[in-house]
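Entry 0007
Protein: Hydroxyphenylacetyl-CoA thioesterase PaaI
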Amino acid sequence: MTPQERARRCADLMWSKDRASQALGMSIAAIGPGTATLTMPVRDDMLNGHGICHGGMIFTLADSAFAFACNTYNALTVAQSNQITYLSPGPAGETLTATAHEVARAGRSGTYDVIVMTSAGDQIALFRGLSRTIQGQHFDEDAL
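Output (structure tokens):
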């Protein structure tokens, strides 16, 4: 199995159980070893009192991209710590794109950066996620 095939299989298995990302209208645009790109349309029910995308929705999109990126090696991996910096608002009706990439991975720990952008290419948030690998795999590679 190639690293790309492994990443895709892990993403497909995770996606099939990820009710939260699905309910928010997210989709996986790209996946690869240590990287993931997810999109999410900003719906009216995602707007805050200022008429812009609620920060929690932007965080969730970034967190989902982070989760898919750090789970591409067929090792169960969870978030240990996350931080986000909001740079500009997420406009109503916009489709946001979160691109996560691996910065470092050593032992059971990983560091991932996520950039959230508008379709026009404007950065609206920067997210850093620290991951921790736990016991278990997404699928049994020996059974293939």
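Curator remark: The first helix runs from residue 3 to 17. The domain at 3-137 is CATH 3.10.129.10 (Thiol Ester Dehydrase; Chain A).
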